[in-house]
Amino acid sequence: MTPIRHNGSAGSDNDAVLDAVRDCVLAVGVRRTTLTDVARRAGVSRMTLYRRWPDVRSLVGDLMTREWIAVATGAMPEHRADMTARELLTRGLVDAVRDFVAHPLFRKILDVDPELLLPYVLDRLGASQEALLELLAGVLREGHADGSVRRAPVERQARSVLLIVQSFTLSLRTVTDEDAPELSAEAFLGELRGILERTLTP
């Protein structure tokens, strides 16, 4: 699955701008980032940005879509003959949560601008969530076919898995205590692996 492109502009142009807004957000957070800052870093005019994005939040939305899809798809293992679809999906999702919570942009937004994530938790699905659901549904269908995944309506099953993984991604750091081995991040990722295995096993 390739990153979603928006606004019909060339991917390389988009990437240069999104790289610039990522650098700005990592440096000062979303609220202190301006289109002027982004234009200067990207080497383009402000009018070029205004023609594609009306404000910084829309730019950051496209940046999050690119980054989150890259994390999710990058965590999925390559198909192997000795791995069932359930094993592939479980391993990939646990690795994705680990990669998300370590991702510099994700950490910065949680620390400084967490309200940016609230619409995608409380109000609507975002583009990256829709893409992840598509990825989940594909692997779940493979699991139904090879007998490794419990049969259920695929869309509902994919959304249920997303709810589980999303809660771990957003809240993992609030429940961990790295001074207590049984409450470390890796211990909770082990619990996530067990939860996914139990809910997906026929």
Automatic annotation (TrEMBL):
UniProt-listed Pfam families: TetR_N
Record feature DNA-binding region, as residue ranges: 34-53
Domain of life: Bacteria
Domain HTH tetR-type, residue spans: 11-71
SUPFAM superfamilies: Homeodomain-like (SSF46689), Tetracyclin repressor-like, C-terminal domain (SSF48498)
Keywords: DNA-binding
InterPro entries attached to this UniProt entry: Homeodomain-like_sf (IPR009057), HTH-type_TetR-like_transc_reg (IPR050109), HTH_TetR (IPR001647), Tet_transcr_reg_TetR-rel_C_sf (IPR036271)
PANTHER family, alphabetized: HTH-TYPE TRANSCRIPTIONAL REGULATOR RUTR, HTH-TYPE TRANSCRIPTIONAL REPRESSOR RV3405C
Protein name as it appears in the record: TetR/AcrR family transcriptional regulator
Source organism (scientific name): Streptomyces werraensis
Upper classification of the organism: Bacteria, Bacillati, Actinomycetota, Actinomycetes, Kitasatosporales
